[in-house]
UniProtKB/TrEMBL annotation:
Name the record gives this protein: Acetoacetyl-CoA synthetase
Keyword Acetylation among record annotations: no
GO molecular function, one term: ligand-gated monoatomic ion channel activity
Organism: Trichonephila clavata (Joro spider)
Transmembrane domains' residue ranges: 139-159, 166-185, 191-209, 384-404
Main location per the UniProt record: membrane
Biological process terms in GO annotation: detection of stimulus involved in sensory perception
Length: 417
């Protein structure tokens, strides 16, 4: 059996050229003393190494000059590592390549993974909760409460015969609304119905307010944020957000061809940016600008930014597209079936998944908890600024009322006996 397997392996070339795109966490490179490029680490670098050991071949790495995966130019030529294979400058190419119909017209693909495109943004910053006491209710509810507090004293004055001024009724009803003791005695049935209705209204409003207020104070409040594709499209149209993706990818093409209107909007406004870093490797942007959403492979985002809670980024749960990832091979390459057989073995035995989990574990180890705000923290003076402002305003109003009352008392003429 060993002799048969050895004879079968002899058909595979002893040396092949591998076109690559230096990708952070996927194919990281270094150079030896002679200037030859070698794999240093990475999921797909280790994948090629395992494949070479199974098939018994050595390889030479060929790096594309333009830093692109591969797209067809107007003159019919191809860029990136797809172009390397198409021009016979490489036998195979790897770089987390999307298996698109257009690319399949010039190269063959050997499938080894499925990935999904999604957006990633920064986690929004916390905002100061100086007006936290207004957050439990919507603005329309506050307006309705104010109208009710102002109109109810007039209603009491019209429907009852009790001789009370507007101010007396207003402060009594307002104290009941605040949960304080308020007493307005009357034997009239219609008066009791009115005051009973107000007690029920006050109970519901005050209980709802108190229950929501505590959670409002304790739960962090975030700045403007988008969480899904529909919100992102609306924010882009409003000029509040922008979307970017890697230069030379097929992401923009996929968006504009989508049947989803939100994705079409994003595709019309998306900006292609180079993902080249200072160390001449390509990877998801290490620093994302505020109010920016980046489109790319979720596989790469998890390696670059980590997974919750080991991250300062938010990856959308929604998926823009699913696509197959494959090894690009020359159309006339001799041993595609043989290579595909061993790739299948690597997948079914869980080796590729193990390579990915190892790299993801490195991302967790490098995570700095100081980069994110703690979810649970003590309330600070900043959180109560609104309450103190309200207190000062109340003191000022009370002082003005006091001055008015003093002036009224001084203006009263006491008759002489």
């Amino acid at each position: 059996m060993t002799q048969v397997l050895s004879a079968f392996n002899m058909k595979f070339p002893n040396f092949i050229r591998v076109g690559i795109l230096p990708l952070r966490h996927l194919m990281e490179l270094n150079y030896d003393s002679d200037g030859n490029v070698r794999f240093a680490s990475g999921v797909e670098a280790n994948f090629i190494q395992v494949l070479s050991e199974f098939l018994g071949f050595s390889y030479q790495l060929v790096i594309t000059d333009d830093g692109e995966w591969g797209q067809m130019k107007d003159d019919g030529n191809w860029t990136g590592i797809i172009g390397l294979v198409h021009r016979n400058e490489a036998d195979i190419a790897i770089g987390h390549l999307t298996m698109s119909p257009q690319r399949s017209s010039v190269v063959d693909f050997l499938f080894y993974a499925v990935d999904e495109n999604s957006f990633v943004t920064n986690l929004p910053d916390y905002v100061m909760k100086s007006l936290f006491y207004l957050l439990p209710f919507h603005a329309y509810i506050w307006i309705s409460i104010i109208i009710a507090v102002v109109l109810m004293p007039f209603l009491f004055m019209i429907l009852t015969s009790k001789n009370l001024s507007f101010y007396e009724l207003f402060f009594q009803l307002f104290s009941i609304l605040l949960g304080q003791q308020g007493f307005i005695a009357s034997n009239e049935l219609k008066f009791r119905i009115l005051i009973g209705t107000w007690f029920i209204f006050s109970l519901i409003i005050s209980s709802s307010y108190r229950s929501v207020l505590l959670s409002t104070m304790m739960v962090p409040q975030f700045a403007y944020d988008v969480r899904n594709i529909k919100e992102l499209a609306a924010a882009i149209l409003d000029g509040k957000y922008k979307a970017t993706t890697s230069k030379g990818s097929v992401n923009g093409e996929l968006l504009t061809r989508s049947v989803d209107e939100s994705l079409q909007v994003i595709g019309e406004h998306i900006i292609e940016e180079s993902w080249f870093s200072k160390d001449n490797t390509i990877g998801a942007p290490q620093h994302i600008e505020d109010f920016t959403a980046v489109l790319g492979p979720k596989f790469v985002f998890l390696l670059e930014y980590g997974e919750p809670p080991y991250t300062t980024k938010r990856i959308f749960k929604e998926t823009v597209s699913f696509w197959n990832v494959g090894l690009a091979v020359r159309k006339d390459f001799c041993c595609k079936k043989h290579m595909e057989k061993y790739i299948t073995k690597i997948l079914y035995t869980g080796i590729y998944e193990k390579l990915y989990e190892d790299e993801l574990f490195k991302a967790r180890l490098s995570f700095d908890w100081r980069d994110i705000n703690p979810k649970i923290k003590s309330l600070t003076l900043t959180d109560f600024v609104g309450a103190f402002i309200l207190l000062v305003v109340g003191f000022c109003v009370a002082f003005v009322v006091l001055l008015i009352e003093v002036q009224k008392i001084d203006s009263i003429t006491v008759p002489c006996k």
